[in-house]
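User: Study the shape:
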Amino acid sequence: MAVSVHKEKGLQAVEEQGSNIWVAAADGDMRRVEFLLEHGDVTPTSKDEVHYTPIHAAASYAQHEMLRLLLKNEPSDSVNVEDNEGDTPLFFCDNVETAKILVEAFHANAKHKNHEGKTAAENALINGCEELATYLSSITGESLASRTALLARYGEEDDEDEGGLVDRSDNTEGRIEELDDDKEMEKRVDEMMERVEAVMKRAEETGTDPTEELRELVGASIMRQIMEGYKN
């Protein structure tokens, strides 16, 4: 009975916090991922609509402990799981340390080519990660062409100046957009509270009732909460 109650509370907590294992893996949220793996209908290699997995997400955001958690009990070939473009998690790395975990600890295939025929080393160089490209090519023994030549070979544009070197899946892009939205909301709340504090300060100085001005400022539905919070 206690186990059942515990599980029910856990499921409720996951629902409240969000049950997207891809985002949780990208965020490095170990507890949530562990719970979802144990109780949810997902695995480290579960694929979304573009075949992006939690392992891809963890590699993309250099979540090293998350990678170890996701891969430690999986079949050895899980480290080479492909998305719909044939990219393995190694293609989503943007630093040597993450790549070393995949290659040296979990034996990722650095010679794998995606559907374009591109290797992870070539992908790293195209994305401006020269140190990573050098490491991967030292593993594979391949001779890399120049970045300009690779861009021309694969028909890609040079978007290095735009700040995004590594291509992220729609899942993690969506997470970034959510964070931006949260920051904008926090900014709006801060601005609102500054205006509320100004109204309350002016009311204290003049001995007037700020109710109507607050009602116009924030709406009657939350005016009472603000008044109570200010008094506390």
